[in-house]
Batch of 4 targets.
Target 1
Amino acid sequence: MTLSLVLQALFAGVTNGIVYALVGMGLSAIFKGSRVINAMQGEFAVIGAMTTVLLLTKAGWPYAAAIAGGAIAGALVGAFIEVAFVRFMAKKNASEDSFLLLTIGLALSLSASILYFVGRDGHLLPPLGGEGVLIVMDAVIQFHALWLIAIGIGATLALRAFYHRTTIGLSMMAASIDADGAATTGINVARMRTFTFVLGGLLGALGGILVTPLIAVDYQLGLNLTLKGFAAAVLGGLTNPLGAAVGGITLGLVESLAIIGISSSYKDVVAFSVLIVIMILMPQGILGRAGRRGG
Amino acid sequence: MNPRTLLWLVPCLIVWAVLPFVVPRNIADLLVFTGIYTVAGLGIGLLLGHCGIVNLAQATFYGLGAYASAYCTVMMGLPSIVGFLAGAAISMALAYVIGRPILRLTGYFLALGTLALSAIASALFFEWDWLTGGTLGIGGIPKLDLFGFLLDRPSRYYFFVWIVAFACMAVAHNLIDSRTGLMLRAMRDSSTAAAALSIDLQALRTKVFVVCALFGSLAGSLFAHHASFVSTQSFTVDRSISFLLIPVIGGATSIPGIVVGALFVTFLPELLSKLGDIHQILFGLALVAVVVLMPEGLVGAFAKLRTRFARKGGSHG
């Protein structure tokens, strides 16, 4: 095992980890704001990526506009899910399990819709920053990966600032910590829950768009991303979107170490085993009790 | 058994006995699958309805049963009963070993933990191709031979599968009615009070999980002998999800509900597939509709409807 191989693996781990982190951050934002585990979080990524692909290739939009369109599509689907289904079920005091089943049903419908309307082929987006590569000690690093890492870190910091500095972010946090208390201070709790889904959709779509130059997006990608995103969110303590960022990168690194240590085909086995072990041994996530504090 | 139960049970049994002879072969085939899915769904129903556990790992045990049957009969040339027993033993042992730690989790964590388990198993089924044949699968699994009577047609296998299904329903019914069932009810309604009455909650949950795995493995073996061919595509996470839908759609606390759910999961995609490729979207939306509009499943919704009508009838009289 040479140094450059290890370096390459670590870099790939961080790159994948940021994608898991973005999906996980969305999942954890939704859980924090609505106590719903969103089993269709990976579908947000697929919707974002697919919309960007279609806008770029079929409608001929410029790349930046297509990316914005994809992200907005994710946010809109998030809003739609909340307004059309979650709100209705929350009124009837549906159980935790019903929400899980609802989002599983939505995930099935969305993935089937993409199969029906777009087809079964995978699609790739052009890499950000061109095809160029950076070579560090024989390890090949794509420019796109650097962009991905920069955007991922930027999104994480922006999310933190959003929760701590903006009125809407603070209101969302208040509504998630104490819904009745928030309502008495004039916060529209139901609207905050809608915003939570918008945020979740946006983050998921961003993760999907950023990964598509590396992995072809197709109708089946959603479930795997949901599982990885959930693993990231659980590692981070589930109620803390920023913990999910740490969790995602940890998961990415564990996976790439499994690839160089064992074999690439056992990457999912290792990732999901780590998820189960962490859930049993560290129910608060790897950040411990600190992870339970808000945003 | 009271006379009122007999009143609907006897016609049901007559329809059940005549059905495979009057319907076309493809429908008989689907009815065999309904029986297989009923067996697999029963276990998940026990966990969901009586322990409040969402099990998304049933395809793992279904796969273990199917591969045990395939490997024992095709690769080792052993009688098919060995495959059934080996699958059941491996599944129960695995469910016990994994169940002990994983069932300490609750709610969402447990649901996603079992989903992760199913994802691990489906990756291993794919990787361990020396055992499972990978995507190529294992073919040529013999049809079951019951004392010289070859169960080679759907209409013949139908009776065998459904008798196994009825036996499993009887086991599930007795389990709910027994001391264990009382403990389960106590645990579901107030786990703290149940623990204070010295009920070992974790042992109890593990026990039901092991029974669920046994049913899953039996269903898998039945499937292997029906399809004659098993490959990784049959034991993916998607299959675990569709197994979970059986009790969700039918109604988790009711044993007839499991049959209704199994009918729904086997027949609806087939009926919708006549509409072309759009059928998968419609199936997903049908699931969403059931979850949103009928939280207690079809059987629960039916019961609610009946009490409403009974009340209306009463006010008229």
Target 2
Amino acid sequence: MNLKDYPRRFYAIDQFCQPPCYELIGQSFRFIMDGGYDYELKITGKETCQWNKVGEEPENANYDCRKADDTTYLLNYDLVKTLNTPKRVNHLYVIDMEQRLVTMVRCYIGDNPKFPLLVRSEYDFGAIEAEGKELPFKRHCFTGDMMGTTVEWHWNTEMWTQHFYNSPAYYRITWPQDSSATQNIGGNFEVLPASDEISQYVKIKDNMYLYCLTEEMMERIMGDKSPFRSNNMIFLQNYDRMYHCGRTFGSVTHDGKTMPCRVNFGSFGNPVRLDPEWMTAENPFTV
Amino acid sequence: MIMKYGGVYIPNLANDGKYGIGQYRFPRNYELNGKSFTIEADGKTYDLAFTCRERAQLDGKACDYESLKLEKDTYFVRLGQDIAVINVEQCLATLILGDTFVYGAFKGPDGKLPAARHARAGDDMTDTKIRWVLGPNKYVNQEYIGGAKVRTAWSKNTVMIGNGMKSFRDNWEAAAEDYDDLPYTAVKITEPMYLVEIKGGVREGVCAPKGTNRIVTLQDYERMMLVGCVFGEGFEPVMITGYAKFLD
């Protein structure tokens, strides 16, 4: 049998996603956060955890966890009490066991009265408490290290996209004609004046970055003409190995119904040269 | 904007890697740490214990190990120069000990030994033509032809992007002409995941290390990814991960 003909399902960005990681089962963490509120996280099973702000009652949640290197974990869960409401909340952590540091991203849907599907993100840096040890002084941090990077990401056997991290607050995306991105996602971008989208960049360690993008321009300009409604995508990118893992948190509209868009993804990368004229074109969304 | 006139150096984090064919290797998986398995096969038992993150014991004999996870319940483990594929949902394990394949099972949470075993894949893979990309511009083409042979060709060693290519994919169509028909053994682990051992050397000037004589991979044709290990003389085993492109 030619295994090309095996009846596999349709994949978008989740085909090359790493399998889930269960290494943290049984572990408990206290994260001392610079934002002033500390968090506790207890991993109770393959998919279950308990979390709370210190001093409050624990809440159950279903989590997902992947690894970006041998000692760095990307873990996230939706707040159960916000599920099936217009104001969903997602907590995401980069748990860095090598440096005993943590980055927490809290994402909120429903805050913006004009654009109720927009995702707003809060970034909080901190350290992992360990008995008998002082907290490290250093922190993960916002960074400009990624500026100038051009990288081609392979998401499935037929789709690859090319990213240019050109600005501390935006990024730019394109793809070659032979990528299935042309059919799968290209239509929306043809309507927009440019593919630039809001981004933040956080340095975790040398050659590892938390890259966060929110498809905010698409939501503001296209609204319900696009199926993807302000998708927040967070990638933990490992440039030592040239791959990443990540998750989406947003909404998708299909046949008039809007539903949560929650996908775990991964891709493999390689360097790429891009058209200098495209790279240096002005960002139409900024002064 | 960061592009300026006048020769400003703009760094680029994306790179073609320093790990050779091991470039895309997934993070090591430590879920087996502290676990032990009594694997029963053909009237024999094999006691496999993972004593810490890097050391294991097989029938009391210590060895180093590396584990990569390909699917939520399936682990590919290098035990020294041997291999174990462990599926904790099926409670099945296949071992490759030297030249011997062992198809075993271990008791599940209910205390029962499953009746099923992994088994040879027969002709399942015949006619499959695939490229496994193991790193930027590092790949191996595999065409599974009849007679338990696989036509294998590795990419040439190190073609840097600095020679004017726009993309590493520009070099993919200049496929490696030098192929070898090598014997393979395939074991069906789940539908459609296969454990494949290919024995044989590699030509001069390819991306696989000189001295390579065996490649063992766990190939997932649903997710189109593989994990595995390349063995040979003169180098330590290289754990690998890759993604697939069909060649037809």
Target 3
Amino acid sequence: MTRVAIVTPYHGEPLAWIAKAHASVRLQTHPATHILVGDGKPEAAIDGWDAQHIVLPAGHRDWGHTPRAIGALSAAAQGFDAIGFLDADNWFYPDHVASLLALQAEQDLEVASSLRVMHHVDGRLLHLCQLVDGIETFDTNCMMLFPPAYSALPVFALVPPDVRYIADRWVSIWLKRRGRRVGCTGKGTVAYRVRYRYFYETSPLPMPTEHIVDLKIPHPRELRQWWLALPEDEREFHMKVMGAR
Amino acid sequence: MRIAVVTPYSDEPLEWLRQGHASLADQGHAVAHILVADGRPDAEVAKLADQHIVLGRRHDDGGNVARMAGGLSAASQRFDAVTFLDAADWFLPGHLAGMVTALEAAGADVATARRVLHRIDGTPVGACRQVDGLRTADPSGILLAPTAFSAIALWCLVPQPVAGDAAQSVLGYLQGRERRIVAAGPSPTLAKRVRTRAFNAGLGATPWDAWLVDGDLPDPTAVARWWRDIGPEERARQFRRIGIH
């Protein structure tokens, strides 16, 4: 049976949210090992869960990307056949892992992706996300990597500091540039709890009163402009740090 | 230059860890000591650490996952260099200053050190003739500049048959990615405590006999032979997995 690890970084999210994420991993129709990585705010209760628990002493302030890389590389070293990700505020629908594995088996993929379903901060269902298509645009929660793609894992932690909050975007660029085979199930199997202020500001929903994040994800065109504005030697340096050169 | 020194530990005597930690004071460079508990966190060891990472389960992999976790965390924190110090080893005075001088003088991405072998009770035996820092390396004798940080993942991505001596594959990866490697020297500056029973034969009883292990010191040239003998197809598969292609 394919051995699957799911990595969840956490840093101060409500324990009830982390428990919901964990329960959704435990309830997958294909079993998965849950690796939780505390990024500076460890929850002692997790030591009692049926999970692996890594505790980092200080928050890396990079939206979970460094703990994500550490948890995932730990899974790679343990010989897991597939590695997925789940943020502490989200959860999976029960067939998420099984549907990704089925797609990989059918198409011999190196990266499989799902779609995501938007949920309100309070948990209620909103709609299928229109932005993430699993081919051109990924969400980390939707991705599952197979061993030929494991070399992308350190990129999560090594992106340039100014843009580390979108390290997942860099990982997807790295995978595409390296010609990794990518496919999407076309199914929304990730429940994505939307916490972005701009999302509510541009919707008819009332603004939630807590757990809101004031961050705007840039358009890919903006990221490209930022990159091309860097001096060439600086771009070369960042490429080497990430292992892209 | 801000240097992070990463030490994995599991059940080594506190005295050994204190000796390694104390050796950092004579390096001619301020360092941050990151200690990584591989499944058995120790409150006394944590007191030595500038940062203390806890892996909730023991990996029994010679410290590879722990090296990766501490190293990638340090890389993400943008230390100027990352190096490693095994729990049984220590640095001779000026070791890091010599590594940094060699690194900067050569404009290199990586500096390596030669080693002096010691019996389990700490008595020196002599310079190691197998590890030269260019064709072969010791895990405690590798200092990485940022342009070599992607090699930190190799501690976890090395193929299982050669994971027991992962330092050789880390060195091979760096060579494969055309990083400049300089061997500091010519004198060895790394003190290596050898725990194998055969190496310590004739020493008589010591307080450390419980920490003796069977087998011989790994033959670093065996890893190169393994890579050569697996054949081009399997080698290409492994290169893809670790990120050389």
Target 4
Amino acid sequence: MDSKPDPILSCSEVWKLFGRNAQQFLKENNNVTDDMLSENGLIGAVRDASIEVDEGEIFIIMGLSGSGKSTLLRCLARLIEPTSGQVMFEGENLLNHSEKQMIQIRRHKMGMVFQHFALMPHLTVLGNVAFPLEVQGIDRSERENRALEVIELVGLQGRESYYPRELSGGQQQRVGIARSLSVEPKIWFLDEPFSALDPLIRREMQDEFLRIQSVLNKTIVFITHDFNEAVRLADRIAIMKDGAIIQIGTPEELVINPADDYVEEFTNDLSRAKVLSAKTVMSEPEPDAQVGGRVSSSAKIQDLAEELIKSELPFHVVDKNDNVIGKLTRDAVVDVLVKQP
Amino acid sequence: MNSTVGLSSRHKFAYTWPLAWGVAFAVVAFIWIGGDLWQWAVKAPKELTWKVEALGSCTSVRLCVTGFFKFMVSNEAYIFPWTFKEFTRFVAACIEFPYQIIRSFLASGFTIPLSGGESWQSPPISWLGLTVVLTAVAYRLRDWKLALMVFLCVAYLAVFGNWESAAITLSSIAVAVPIGIVFGALIGILGYRYEKFERAITPILDLMQTVPIFAYLVPVLFLFGFGPVSAVAATVIYAMPPMVRITMLALKTVPLEIKEFGKMVGCTKRQMTWRVLIPAAAPGLMVGVNQVIMLSLNMVIIASMIGAGGLGFDVLASLRRQAIGDGLEAGIAITLIAIVLDRLTQAWASRSPAPHHETKPTLLQRHKNLMLALLILVGTTAISFVAPFFAQWPEQFEISTGQFWNDLIKWININFFDELEAVKVFLLLNVLKPVKAFLLALPWPGVLLFLALAGLQLGGIRLAILVVSCASFILITGQWTKAMITVYLCGISVVIAAMIGITIGVIASRYPVLKRSVLVFIDTLQTLPSFVYLLPVVMLFRVGDFSAMVAVVLYALPPAVRYTLYGIQQISPSLIEAAKTSGCTKRQLLTKVQFRLAWPEIMLGVNQTVMFALSMLVITALVGTRDLGQEVYIALTKADTGRGLVAGLSVAFIAIITDRLISAAAKKRKQALGL
């Protein structure tokens, strides 16, 4: 983890203002405040957002409705033209590309899943999944073969000739997922993919999503308004409020070290044991002490709790190379389980 | 901020409007009393004319329009690379060619010249074959119920001896509908893609839908001459605007996510339109297709005035002969065709796609049905050479109810003449005549003043300018008196229709059973061609204003009922419960809650009633009213484009004035209710 590779997708100082002469306004003003925006009749949907998404990571943008998370996602895909800023994808600024170049990039390197599925009602499952390939002009047998592979990946084999309206919500979103993966995109956008589903189905789909990701290992930008979902799925989370990004970090970092009250509000309802890992809770190492066993530093407290509470003795915390780097006591674990912040 | 300013100004000017109206009434009364002194104001002015050397014979609006059309058909007007005349000929050929082919198939058969100056006449498609195929199609699209209905409707045409006329009518519909759909959709797509284009066509569409149909006929007749081509052209012009609107609306209402999806998979603009937007908007577009078919059928009778022939001509002819039975039968035939086409297209639009668990229907399978259908058609047609039954339903078995209807009317006339006459005379003397006299006596500056005030109060200065300029057009083209007669007939009819309609609506909203039968009744009323109303009315009351009024009331009733019902039903049930728990009696519930909340909808219903009344009023010119409708009708018989269009536009402007004023009032009311 010393020299970080360049992020595959990043944006810096992206603004999206709605209203007249927004571009001019941004050029002339540096430290934009709420008052300055409202005086000029502008609405700040995205304000000075900068993120970096690394290859193979699940990056979640989380915020309540109206926080600008969907707008930011659309700026990243250039569905919406940012008022100012840069969007870098594979080392090139997307905003400099022509319409034609964008079509090529979207056809081959991007996939997107939509909140309300956005399936074509007149096409079957197979037709929907093959649609992105059809648009590229790939001939029928080839595109259908490739579509069948992804359909199998999302577990819909046997339903290829169903129409969307014959499927349940969860199944429809599986089609949406398969469709977005059919072109083997470099980057995978998911815009609140599970928000329109029932809680039980949502949970099932989250598991499904993690399973698919463990097979494909895509670079993912995922939007949600559900903090629990974010914590469950994310490698890193960016929290947005009123168009601005308040904090970016791993779920654990957000819980230990919330940037402000707003972030802390979200973490309050959270089961801390699910988020905190041994590394965070451990105390100074005592290599010679008598221990009940060894635990990995990245293991979550939730998973260790039973074993630790049963044991009278503390445990060694070890890193990847099996070096002892800390000690985990029963008290510390009980603290995490019981104490509310 | 704004709302507080609004409140305080409302408070401050609380007495402004009543005062303004009071002054206006005083002014009008003053002019009226001192009538002799202000002759210019009391008497409707003559047509405004001018003499400008450069404009030549263009000395009034009417003559300018006539001159313009004369110029267009002369050889000097160019639409690159043709002259305009060549252009219209080209259009005519484009319509004529498919029309003749379809007509040969359906109605007249092909005449194939043989050597030696002789020719061989092929028969048209057998009625029996077509009936069987249509029934089968209906069965395949939905179920045996639809099949039975289609069978009965089509069989009616044969049994009642309307087959050939129906075939001719169908031929022109078959040409007009695809043209209307394709061009309507294309214009709609352009409108969706280019906002400027949309803004340019919207007022044109508005005008096209408010100008009475008759007024189209005049220029179309002038450009294409008497015959089926003109009829098809007029039908297309009439039926296309809704397609344009619905296309734009359907494309706009495609969910944003679908559009974004299209972009995300890298669709080009063309792929976006044809692969994403149009399929996603298909259900909406089908509504448009259905509308085009329905409106085309609405046009059948009117189009027969410029040479469509077929069923429309039958109705028109029997109206002239006062043969109610024949007219009614032909009118019902038109309605039945409309119903069949309507149900079939709806069934087609909502047909369930091939069930998923079956294997995909192969191309062969699909062709099998088509082949079978073709086989039946060719087979029955071939048999019709030898078996006359296949060619035509035998005449001796034709049924006619004509005599029955004629006798019925005769019987009513003999037995109830005095009663009918009494009602008619009473209404004429006590309602119609006084209102007419009052409106005609109103000084025109007073009317303009009232309109301006109403516009100002309801919608502000722009609305005021709009309504006053519309009225001024009527004034300067010298149509004031005729326009006032139109207003008087339309006004009385609307008041009566609204009173009856709202009452029916209110009563029906209380009893679900009644509601269903009322809906069926007004649906039937609406699908009957407007001319059909005229027939019995004329035979019972003879020609004149009263007959016109009765026909208009009948025609304009449905929207009043429908909107009232809708308005009362869309009130949230929790509000009704709240009123009931506060102890409202049924009457209080109606007057204090339902009426008030439904008022905006009811006003829109009245608005529709006005529109329906105006369109029917033009048709009643056929039974001898002396209003703008008569003006259009005269222009039609003389092919006087200027006269026809000016009078037609005047009717449209009356419609626009009422529409904008009532809509503004409804909107204001809605805002006040916070809906």
